[in-house]
Design goal:
Number of strands: 6
Radius of gyration: 25 Å
Shape: elongated
Distance between the termini: 37 Å
Amino acid sequence: MNKNFARTKYKIQFPFFLNDSLEILFEKLNFNFENENFKITILTKPLLIGIANVKLNLYSKYASPLTTYYGIEILKKSKAEMSIDEATKLLKSFILEFNQATNMIIEISELHDFDSDYYGYEEEEEEEENLENPSSTINISELPNYSEAIEFYLKAQSTSDDEIKFLYYYKIIEYFSPKVAKLKAYEVLVKKLDSIKYKNTKSSDLDTIIDISESLRKSKSDSELAKTVLSTGIDIIDLFDLLPENTRKLICKNIGINSNTVDYNLSIDKIESISQSLGKILYSTRNSIVHAKSNYTPDSFECKTEDLSQMNTFLYKATYQVLKWNDNLPKHSK
């Protein structure tokens, strides 16, 4: 038995507590995942967790072994043994998609030894609510491929501190930046190699290849990584209005456009310039948070403190787009 999960050979249940928002949600919504290999469901009365509570003696008259927790159940359809590592990765991807669908976060908990002092309940009967017949159902058949970036994303949802939230989102950008930089360099390099395939190689051709390598090195530097990811992994036009108003004005001023003209009619160069300017703002904001105030000199590109919450609203959507961009890459590019 384990306090973090309850399992059989091919089925694992992870416990979590309801908060008021989740309780209201689950009165209305049933959220499930199923494909040819796995089925994931949210259970109001997870039997395996209830059995674990009994065997570990983690229950009382104030905390029923079966109804204290909800559970996320992962079932492996092949009836083959499922490793905890495999189940945990599926769990994190499932919680991410649940968050996208509901804007709420599920936090997996340990089984606890509860008593009356913990709950502070009075000994009285409470009317049992009906959570068995939600009015709507969301069924999904795809989950994002697990990566460490999903961990960062879920941690961002679990904190109310805007600076910490921002840094977790930025870590997602950092995580994918080497891949984006390499893919861009490979694309340019392949074109160059194709152009010299049937002719004598000149020194200028070799110089170009060296320049491509230098460009890769530069795009992987701290100051360039946000620009690199934003220009490739997100639809900046679609998300532009989610940026804080001050940030939108600064970007438009930097590249010489009117904010009312930010749409898909902009030239490719202007759209790229938006991503480049925003990348600089994110980098400066990250530095202003990470470095001690006494060791940091503002450069006027930082996101204002009062705008950080709205910037996180933008990054919530933008970093999810980056996760989906990575999922949609062909296998040879992952």
